Amino acid sequence: MAEQTAKDMNVELTGALRRGSVKKNVAAIHVSGKLTLLQRKLSNVLLLNAYDTLIHQTTHRIDARTLCAMIGYNSNDMETLKASLRGLVETLAEWDMLDADGQQEWGVSSLLAYAKLKGGVCEYSYSAALAEKLHDPKVFALINLNIQRRFTSGHALALYENCYRFVRTGSTGWWELELFRRLMGVSDSTYYEVFKHLNAKIIKPAVAEVNKTSNIIVTPETRKMGRAVSHIRFKIKENPQLAILDIDDGEGARNSPVYDRLRGQGVSDRLARQWINEHGDAYVAEKISYVQGQKGVQNPISYLSAALKADYGAGEPAEPKPSSARARKLMAVRDAVAARTPTQRDADKRLFVSRIEDAAARQDFEAHGWMSALNAETIFEFWEDMMPGVFDEGVTP
Fold this sequence. Notes:
Elements: H1 2-8, E1 29-31, H2 37-50, E2 60-63, H3 64-71, H4 78-89, E3 92-98, E4 104-110, E5 114-118, E6 121-125, H5 128-134, H6 145-148, H7 154-164, E7 175-176, H8 177-183, H9 195-213, E8 216-225, E9 228-238, H10 251-254, H11 257-264, H12 269-279, H13 281-292, H14 300-310, H15 325-338, H16 342-353, H17 359-368, H18 376-386
Antiparallel strand pairs: 1-3, 2-6, 3-4, 5-6, 7-9, 8-9
Helix pairs in contact: 2-3, 2-4, 3-16, 7-9, 11-12, 11-13, 12-13, 13-14, 14-15, 15-18
């Protein structure tokens, strides 16, 4: 769907920031409102979770505990999650850009159209107009969650988000200070109307954290009207020391024969690129061949996901035979993990690791994942708590 949309708009999908041509008013979404660091992280996780079905699906779901774990909330702190979701619904996203026909288009929408929590699941939706913009890589850039986790300041993450989409052009272009204060969430403070205060408390600390934490380096430049600073822009270049944290822009992965094999099996574009970037062509190709050689596989994509994660076929009994109750439970865990989205799997793993106190047990889990023998009983308790009844006979995760 994403590729067809891009084709219709004559856009080459080679990355979240690459554009067919650089125009004077580059398309961008400005998010206003005083979002906290956790709210910004929440917004990015929700978008990543919904991205593959953003255009053709009106509602999206993610279990609330996974969502909390992904953004650093206490997994039982539903009140904080409710407050953050409320904040996203009350926050405006605004765009002012040229459309596909070269006509000026201005629009505004709530960042989330609605959100609700029911039965341990967070359900949410975007307005149709905003979903279209968020899915267009010319307009909005997905944020790498590996980089997002490193931020400790909401202002720094806000600066990063608003600069990252311009990395291909090398500059944000000039922003009026009023707009910049709005992007940083301090537009209602008279204190920050004084540039000296804005620079000392917001700009310098945010720039320092972006340059230390992320995959880009930003340098602020100002322009004056008379004696007063009236505009600011940020020159942007890639940070070679932290480039490993970045997501491949898709150009390399999409040219890989392994990518074509994955897509031919129904794997989504984003997931195919993620697997290739994370594991490498050779490893993914090996696991595709392994799965194709297995008989009776009902869900090849889920099975392949598990094979990549647990290294099936590597010469050791990664996939247990159903000869015992314990082995059957391990197979149930394997299937439960395979049924989760990449975002959920990452959260599940980090949540489980946070509960391991013994160093040897932690090391064994890092080496063997959910097939860890030292952690087997704890793993069973974890998944029974996550999915009650998961080990019952005849239950499909």
